[in-house]
Automatic annotation (TrEMBL):
Taxonomic source organism: Enemella evansiae
GO terms of molecular function: DNA-binding transcription factor activity; sequence-specific DNA binding
Protein name (database record): AraC family transcriptional regulator
A Pfam family hit: HTH_18
Ranges of residues in domain HTH araC/xylS-type: 167-255
SMART domains membership: HTH_ARAC (SM00342)
Length: 270
C-alpha cells in the first residue's frame, strides 16, 4: 500500500485518536469494503476520486464526498472502491470533533456527511489534494488542524469527557461510571446520546469490540480474545463481529482491503 503515516502532533494529543494515514490502493472495481465501527469519528480526504460510502443495511444508497466525516455508529458502512482508493484517513476523539467542527459528535450519530456541511471550506481539501507528495499533504492538513485547535471555542464538558474515558476502559460498568461523574444512570444515558451520539452501553460495546478485533487481527485466537476481553464465549464474540462488521470473523479477516487503523505503521506511530 503506497502512502504514509504521520504520528500525532503534540498539539493534537487528545484530539486525534491515532496517527493520520495516507493510502493509495488499486482494487477490483467491483470491490465493496465493509467499514468497521470504532470509538472515534472517521474523517477521510479523498484525492483520486470522491469516496463513495453508504450503509450495509441500505446497500442501494450511497453518498460521494471529497471530504467525508462519519460519526459513531453500530452498523457497518459500505465503501464502493471503484478500482482505486487514495486519500488520508484520521480518527477524531469527541473533544477533537468539537474542536475542529464546533459541534458535538452526537450531531452525526449513525450518519456521515461532507465536511462542507460542517463549515469546512472546500478550499481546505483542494489545497491538500493539490500537493504532490505525502509529506506536504500531511503538513498542510496538520497545520489546518492545529489552527482550528488553537481557535477552539467548543469543548466537551468535563463530566462527559471523564465519562467517555471511563466507558472506553475494559470492564466498564454503566452504574459505576454514572456514580463516578455524579449522575443518575438516566442522566448519563441522555447526556451521552446528546454529546456522542450513542448511549453508554453502546459506547462501551464498540470500545470493547474494537480492542478485541484489533487483537485478533494481530494474531490472537478468537477464543482467547473472547476470554481476554470479557465476552461470554467465542460464539458471543463471533455474533458481535458479524453484527458490527457485516461479515463473520473468517470472512472479515480474509478481506484483502486493509483496515487502515490496523496497519502496523499506525500502531508504531501512536
Amino acid at each position: 500500500m503506497a502512502g504514509g503515516v504521520r504520528p500525532v502532533h503534540p498539539g493534537l494529543r487528545g484530539l486525534l485518536a491515532g496517527p493520520m494515514v495516507g493510502y493509495d490502493l488499486i482494487t477490483d472495481p467491483r470491490a465493496v469494503h465493509f467499514g468497521v465501527p470504532s470509538p472515534g469519528a472517521t474523517v477521510i480526504l479523498a484525492f483520486a476520486e470522491p469516496i463513495d460510502v453508504g450503509w450495509a443495511h441500505d446497500p442501494g444508497r450511497s453518498e460521494q464526498n471529497w471530504f467525508m466525516v462519519a460519526g459513531l455508529h453500530t452498523r457497518p458502512s459500505l465503501v464502493h472502491t471503484h478500482g482505486r482508493q487514495c486519500g488520508i484517513q484520521l480518527s477524531l476523539t469527541p473533544q477533537g470533533f468539537r474542536s475542529f467542527f464546533g459541534t458535538p459528535l452526537g450531531a452525526l450519530a449513525n450518519d456521515l456527511t461532507g465536511a462542507a456541511e460542517l463549515g469546512v471550506p472546500t478550499a481546505v481539501h483542494d489545497r491538500i489534494a493539490g500537493a504532490t507528495d505525502w509529506e506536504t499533504r500531511f503538513d498542510l492538513l496538520e497545520a489546518q488542524l492545529l489552527s482550528r485547535a488553537g481557535d477552539r471555542v467548543s469543548t466537551v464538558p468535563a463530566e462527559l469527557d471523564h465519562a467517555w474515558h471511563l466507558l472506553g476502559r475494559p470492564g466498564a460498568r454503566i452504574e459505576a461510571v454514572a456514580a463516578e461523574v455524579g449522575w443518575s444512570r438516566r442522566q448519563l444515558q441522555n447526556r451521552c446520546r446528546q454529546e456522542f451520539g450513542l448511549p453508554p452501553k453502546q459506547l462501551a460495546r464498540v470500545a470493547r469490540f474494537d480492542r478485541a478485533r484489533g487483537a485478533v487481527r494481530a494474531g490472537l485466537a478468537l477464543a482467547e480474545a473472547a476470554y481476554r476481553f470479557g465476552f461470554s464465549d467465542q460464539a458471543h464474540l463471533s455474533r458481535e463481529w458479524s453484527e458490527l462488521c457485516g461479515l463473520s470473523p473468517r470472512r472479515s479477516l480474509a478481506d484483502d482491503f486493509p483496515i487502515l487503523q490496523d496497519d502496523p505503521r499506525t500502531r508504531e506511530a501512536r
